[in-house]
């Protein structure tokens, strides 16, 4: 997982229509510091936590798809996923903790995909049997 955290902070602040000046006031950083952070690929968990708190979002948002790509193939927003993430009260203490939770979630998704595939095959077999 290769994430440009500075760019992600910029994208998330833009989705909330926050100016650099507003973001600097919310974080207590200078506007120049904000611009410097936007250019950094790697940031410490303390900085991510500070921006997550300022943006009023769970730190996990920094690890999700960029806001500009939060669409399914049909072009509809992934509203259910976004609503779950936005309404969660889970805050991670470190990037490692977040990555562990994401790995667990991916494993669950893969298991569910296998179950769906198995059920689809069963449905196909039953349809063939009935024809």
UniProtKB/TrEMBL annotation:
Transmembrane segments: none annotated. The keyword NAD does not apply. Residues 9-62 form the HTH cro/C1-type domain. Residues 95-129 form a coiled coil. Pfam families: HTH_3. Keywords: Coiled coil. InterPro entries: Cro/C1-type_HTH, Lambda_DNA-bd_dom_sf. SMART domains: HTH_XRE. The lineage of its organism: Bacteria, Pseudomonadati, Bacteroidota, Cytophagia, Cytophagales. This is Helix-turn-helix transcriptional regulator. It comes from Rhodocytophaga aerolata.
